[in-house]
Design goal:
This protein has 123 residues and is mainly alpha-helical. The protein is built from 5 helices and 2 strands, in the order αααβαβα. It has a two-stranded parallel sheet with strand order 1-2. The termini are far apart.
Amino acid sequence: MRADALLLPLAMAVAAGLVGCFAVMRRMTLASDALSHVALPGIGLALALQLKPVLGGVVALLADRDLTGTGIEVDILEDGALDLPDSILKRLDLVIGAVHSKFDLSRARQTERLLAAMEQPTL
């Protein structure tokens, strides 16, 4: 195995660790998660085209900045409320709601929960 084949994964691991620590300290974990999801397709495409993965990630990040707005997925709580305050959700372009817990509720209660969530003006 070539030594430079290990260099890129090692450098990515170190960089991801540093960025992750910085994001947690700045309470920006959702932003860092979004950035990684945006960059990954560019990295994959670059690898498929036998280009530098870093180049693909940077191009994907720059392209996405102009193509999309800001959005988030929020948890629909048991009572139909969302897990983030409206003051935050109003600033986003897209808010998607999903059930992440309490799957054992009755069918009627789950329906009430979803109908209550659909009444939220930010969803």
